[in-house]
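Tokens as discussed.
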């Protein structure tokens, strides 16, 4: 575990916000968080950040901590120290954490049915630690992965992503979040309800990352998600925020 040199975090604690103040939100994950492929909006996290910059909005502050290629073990390694360095004004800590990782863990290496990039059992253990560690820091939301275009594989000539493994890893994530009362947005399920052509129209040339339309779609789906809509209605006390976010899991 990494310890914060500048702040002390007690289990389950967050910094109190007076009603009407803006929340400090951090988004951790892979290239889907980073926004790779969105030349117009910068990704769904950036779109969310911009949407809260207008004077008439709640004014929440969003920090994008997405790293291309990250898997769950890498997010675990950097979570706590990066969390503690993203407060504002008198060393306040962030109020909400959004996680989105797991796609790269599910990839098969070297061949279509090769070993997973992160062994499934190790993934489950790392994910459990990530979720438990995150909940000790502040309330948590989880945004799931989107389905890839299998016909475009392999990615970088060595990584084979497929829906079967994606489903396996996202279901493990969904169940782990459910057990911990962490709200989970199942983008994989939302996207696969549409036609294959609909999905492909929202993916870039590599078949892995969303294009501009894809990120716009993700942003809209996130904005329609009840936990985010609650944030849009205005800031609430940290303890109340935790209860409201958890009850919508």
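Sequence:
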């Amino acid at each position: 575990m990494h310890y914060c040199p500048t702040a002390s975090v007690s289990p389950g604690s967050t910094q109190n916000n007076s009603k009407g103040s803006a929340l400090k939100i951090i988004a951790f994950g892979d290239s889907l968080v980073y926004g790779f492929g969105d030349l117009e909006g910068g990704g769904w996290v950036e779109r969310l950040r911009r949407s809260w910059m207008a004077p008439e909005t709640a004014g929440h502050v969003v920090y994008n901590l997405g790293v291309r290629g990250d898997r769950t073990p890498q997010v675990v390694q950097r979570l706590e120290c990066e969390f503690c360095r993203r407060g504002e004004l008198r060393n306040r800590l962030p109020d909400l954490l959004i996680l989105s990782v797991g796609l790269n863990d599910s990839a098969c290496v070297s061949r279509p049915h090769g070993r997973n990039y992160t062994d499934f059992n190790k993934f489950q253990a790392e994910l459990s630690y990530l979720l438990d560690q995150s909940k000790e820091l502040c309330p948590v939301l989880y945004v799931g992965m989107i389905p890839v275009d299998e016909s475009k594989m392999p990615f970088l000539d060595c990584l084979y992503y497929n829906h079967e493994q994606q489903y396996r890893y996202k279901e493990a994530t969904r169940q782990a979040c459910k057990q911990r009362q962490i709200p989970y947005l199942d983008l994989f399920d939302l996207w696969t309800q549409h036609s294959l052509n609909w999905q492909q129209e929202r993916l870039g040339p590599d078949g892995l990352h969303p294009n501009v339309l894809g990120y716009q779609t993700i942003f809209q789906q996130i904005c329609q998600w009840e936990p985010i809509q609650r944030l849009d209605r205005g800031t609430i006390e940290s303890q109340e925020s935790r209860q409201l976010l958890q009850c919508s899991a």
